[in-house]
C-alpha cells in the first residue's frame, strides 16, 4: 500500500499547531471527543481513547511513541483498538506529524506509512485524515472545529 501524505498550511505558529496535536482540550475537539493518553516518553505506549463502540473509554488507536520533538515532529506506531478489528489481525503502521514554519504560517504534514498490505484500516484512515487535518486548521485559525455530522 502506498503511504498516505497530506500537507496543510495553517494560519498559526508552530507552537499553536503543536498544541493542537498534544493539548488534551484541543485533541478532544479534533478527534471527536477522544484524548491522548501518554507519558510522552519515547518508547512508551501512546493511545487515543474516547467515546465509541465500547462506551466512553473506547480505545481507538494505540502504539508506541517513536519521536517527540516539540513544534517539529510527533511520530508513533499505529494499531486500531479491538472494536475495529472484527476478528481480523491488527497490523501496525506509522504516523508522523511534521511541522515547519513557512512565512507567517505553519506547514503541517501528516505521513501515515509502513502499511501492511492486508491492513483493513487503510481505507478508513484515508477517509478520516482530511477531516482531522481540516479540524486542526480550523481550530487553530478560528477557535472552533467543523461540523461533519454524526459518526
From TrEMBL:
<comment type="similarity">
    <text>Belongs to the AHA1 family.</text>
</comment>
<dbReference type="InterPro" id="IPR023393">
    <property type="entry name" value="START-like_dom_sf"/>
</dbReference>
<dbReference type="Pfam" id="PF08327">
    <property type="entry name" value="AHSA1"/>
</dbReference>
<protein>
    <recommendedName>
        <fullName>Activator of Hsp90 ATPase homologue 1/2-like C-terminal domain-containing protein</fullName>
    </recommendedName>
</protein>
<feature type="domain" description="Activator of Hsp90 ATPase homologue 1/2-like C-terminal">
    <location>
        <begin position="13"/>
        <end position="141"/>
    </location>
</feature>
<dbReference type="InterPro" id="IPR013538">
    <property type="entry name" value="ASHA1/2-like_C"/>
</dbReference>
Amino acid at each position: 500500500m502506498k503511504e498516505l501524505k497530506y500537507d496543510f498550511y495553517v494560519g498559526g505558529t508552530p507552537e499553536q499547531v503543536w498544541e493542537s496535536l498534544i493539548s488534551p482540550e484541543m485533541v478532544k475537539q479534533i478527534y471527536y471527543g477522544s484524548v491522548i493518553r501518554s507519558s510522552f516518553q519515547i518508547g512508551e505506549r501512546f493511545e487515543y481513547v474516547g467515546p465509541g463502540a465500547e462506551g466512553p473509554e473506547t480505545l481507538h488507536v494505540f502504539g508506541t511513541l517513536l519521536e517527540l520533538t516539540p513544534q517539529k515532529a510527533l511520530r508513533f506506531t499505529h494499531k486500531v483498538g479491538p472494536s475495529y478489528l472484527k476478528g481480523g489481525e491488527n497490523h501496525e503502521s506509522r504516523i508522523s506529524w511534521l511541522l515547519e514554519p513557512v512565512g507567517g504560517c505553519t506547514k503541517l504534514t501528516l505521513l501515515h506509512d509502513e502499511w501492511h498490505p492486508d491492513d483493513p484500516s487503510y481505507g478508513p484512515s484515508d477517509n478520516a485524515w482530511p477531516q482531522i487535518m481540516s479540524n486542526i486548521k480550523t481550530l487553530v485559525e478560528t477557535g472552533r472545529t467543523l461540523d461533519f455530522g454524526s459518526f
